[in-house]
Amino acid sequence: ELGDILIASYTGFVATEITVTKQTFYTIALKENANNLNSVVVTALGIKKEARSLSYNVQQLSGNEVNRVSDANFVNNLNGKVAGVTINSSSSGVGGSSRVVMRGVKSISGNNNALYVIDGVPMPNLSTEQPEGVFAGAGQTGDGISNINPDDIESISVLSGPSAAALYGSSAANGVVLVTTKKGAQGKLSLNLSNSTTFSAPLTLPEFQNTYGQSEQGSYYSWGDKLSTPSSYNPSDFFQTGSNISNSISLSTGTAQNQTYVSLGSVNAEGIIHNNDYTRYNLSVRNTSKFLADKMTMDIGFMTSNVKEQNMIAQGQYFNPLVAIYLFPPGDDFLKVKSFERYNASRNFQTQFWPYGDQGLSMQNPYWVTERNLFMNDKGRYMANGSLKYEFTNWINLSARAKLDKSSDRYEKKYNASTNTLFASENGFYSLNETTTRQVYGEALLNINKNFSNNMLSLTANIGGSIEDVKYDQDMYGGRLQGVPNLFTYANVNTTTSEASQTGYRRQKQAIFASSQLGYKSLAYLDVTARNDWASTLAGSKVKSFFYPTIGLSGIITDILPIKSNTLSYLKLRVSYSEVGNEPNTFLTIPTYQMSGGFPVTRTRMPNTDLVPERTKSWEAGTNLMLFNSKLKLDATIYKSSTYNQFFEPTLSSSSGFTSVIVNAGQVDNKGIEVSARYSEKFGKLNWTTGLTYSLNRNKIIALLPSWVNPITQDVISLSEIDMGGTGSYKMV
Asked: What are the φ and ψ backbone dihedral angles of 393, each rounded to 5 degrees?
């Protein structure tokens, strides 16, 4: 009737009232309610649930929160915003990889990085380059998630505990970062332009003295007699001001049945080291449509990126210009080495100028390292995905989705003539490494959401299966140049000293899974999930599959007991237990052969058919608290996890006919606390919000390899210590 009040509401948003007039069409925009106790969060498999119903910890950030300060790799922007998550950025410069570890390191020899999931589909980490020890470490190129345009992100959910991530299987044993991308919106065409420009400089540098040193030109020492004239040399002069310029444009339009979103993005960045450059270009298209009387929803999307990286800074001694910068003698003139190359009459071209020799450290002119020892990466990637969902009734639907993710990467190394002969011939060095990775993912899911007994009981259930197929190929050829200096072609590589490799693998994982949540009067909830994986990496093992369950319980205490007040607005308690697996790497259960000189070479590692996946048993308990009319939010979690069946490779006696074997053993424990607090206050038209996170994790290796009996010789083998290679062999795993 005319004059009636129409109330528009949706879970997680502020209700809006509209007076009914003679209009036949109304445009209603709901504002998100940050203090709503029934706010919705995205959980595993992209399933949306009310935050109050969860028995585990999920922390969610909006895209705006993530992108307030732009970074070439948006993962770095999560630092300090999520409790229980440690983010370590590599020192490779702009666009370098980042390591995300949740609730401590669990695997001694395997991967500890979190799983990234884009719109419900797991994303393989397609990074192939990483440091290789103290000497010849190459710069660590960005991982797969760094290819995403951060302006396309709608929200991020962090599932730090195994209970939250268990539905993703063994890939999620280390936690999950769920990324939900933007869709088109109903309404008129909207155009959004954004720009972010940031500058960077070294935060801290070692302090050096410039008063004492060798006065003799070319003496590479920083001690000796007092200099007659103090040196003006400062290592900071070598650095430049870095920059990161990000631009993005997006279009959104749609009707009630069809919405479209298109975006373009670019990043142009320079590091604080000369000639360290990074560029990225992104294109994203997404369309969502409804048909069959709005019972069928189709969502299709396409994302592509092209990344060019130059001279990612090496983290070892070689190819790292800082070695020469920090050790340069204060009594000498640094300006002269800026002219890093000079004409060599005997060779009739420019060669490296560095009068100090390598000093036993294979040292080179730092400007030669940045300008004439080139590492150039060119990476292309595209992701195409589609999903269908059919609503049988208002409480049951069936959905299916598929995704193709393919990358083609090219890594080139060019060392000019007169580079240190440890790395190149007198004519130079050239190598080319090309990799392709393809992931095909498919999933089907039956979703049930039903209330019973006059809404006294609620049931949310999901039953489904998935298949993931990953194929990886790598071809590399390179070596020292012969004949023509600085001619970087295969034909100019010395075939007698060249290196060639052709490697690859294909792995597949199939799974079935189910989850259910039973609620009672929206006061208490019981969660149960189960998943079983069949992994091709276990082919040849006696264990063909692995199963892991989770169970959780939560209750809204302020609704169960009459204790709610203006001071205590909300109190929820939760507890959960989970077991998750972590499958082994490829080819551990099946013997493989390498080729040498055109003939297969027998592997000396003993095959072990008793290998099983790593297994993590974990529990957590926590509370979600709101005080002072929901102005102060406090989330706290305590947890403990134990990871068993670690992978070790002890050496064997020669009498066995093998040199080593992969075995399961060991235990790594993690226990800790996660706390996040958020306070919001309104002063007239001014809204003020501040947040604080605190994390504490204690990691301990309980056992390595107590004993293992060699089935051939009956020798008992044990490990009481393990050599990880020292700090020089640091790797981000």
From this structure: -140, -175
The 10s digit of each residue's pLDDT in 90-108 is 777 777 778 888 989 888 8
- A 10 A CB-CB count for 206 gives 7
Cα separation, 4 vs 21, whole angstroms: 8
Cβ(486)–Cβ(427) under 8 Å? yes
User: What sign does the CA torsion over 173, 53, 672, 67 have?
Assistant: positive
Residues with Cβ < 8 Å from 45, sequence gap 6 or more? 120, 167, 168, 443, 445, 462, 464
Long-range Cβ contact pairs of 200-209 (< 8 A, separation 24 or more): 200/241, 200/242, 200/243, 200/244, 200/271, 200/272, 201/239, 201/241, 201/242, 201/272, 202/236, 202/239, 202/272, 205/235, 205/236, 206/235, 206/326, 208/233, 208/234, 208/235, 208/326, 208/330, 209/330
Model confidence pLDDT, tens digit, residues 698-711? 999 999 988 888 88
At 411 the pLDDT is 92
Taking domain 34-201+239-318+362-425+434-725, whether its CATH number is 3.30.930.10 is answered by: no
Exposed / middle / buried, residue 193 (Cβ in 10 Å: 0-12, 13-18, 19+) = exposed
In contact, 647 and 110? CB cutoff 8 Å: yes
The mean pLDDT value for 81-93 works out to 81
> Is 624 within 8 Å of 554 (Cβ atoms)?
no
CA distance 480 to 545: 47
Using CA atoms, how far residue 648 sits from 505, 593, 729, in Å, is 22, 21, 18
Residue position matching structure tokens 């008992």: 716
What is the C-alpha separation between 393 and 24, in angstroms, rounded? 28
Residue 259's DSSP bridge partners are: 254, 288
- β-pairing, 115-118 vs 176-181, is parallel
Q: Coil, strand or helix: which one is 728? A: helix
Structure tokens at 579: 């077991």
Distance CA 497, CA 493 (A): 8
Instruction: Write the CA distances from 647 to 111, 364, 552, 698, 728, integer angstroms.
Output: 11, 40, 30, 21, 22
Reported as a single tens digit per residue, the pLDDT across 657-691 is 888 888 999 999 999 999 999 999 988 888 898 99
Residue range 219-252, pLDDT digits in tens: 566 667 777 777 777 888 899 999 999 999 999 9
| CB proximity list for 474: less than 8 A, separation 6 or greater | 128, 433, 434, 435, 501, 502, 503, 504
Amino acid at 721: E
Instruction: Express each pLDDT in 373-386 by its tens digit.
Output: 999 999 999 999 99
What does the alpha-carbon distance between residue 399 and residue 365 come to, in Å, rounded to a whole number? Answer: 60
Cα gap 132→314, rounded to integer Å: 10
* Residue of 126, 175, 131, 165 lying closest to 148 (CA atoms): 126
Listed residue (59, 35, 42) closest to 637, CA to CA? 59
Q: How long, in residues, is the chain?
A: 733
Do 269 and 72 contact (CB within 8 A), yes or no? Answer: yes
CA distances from 56 to 77, 448, 501, 574 (A): 24, 21, 46, 7
CA angle 491, 496, 501 (to 5 degrees): 75
Give the confidence band of 138 by pLDDT, cuts at 50, 70, 90: low
- Are residues 610 and 560 in contact, defined by beta-carbon separation less than 8 angstroms? no
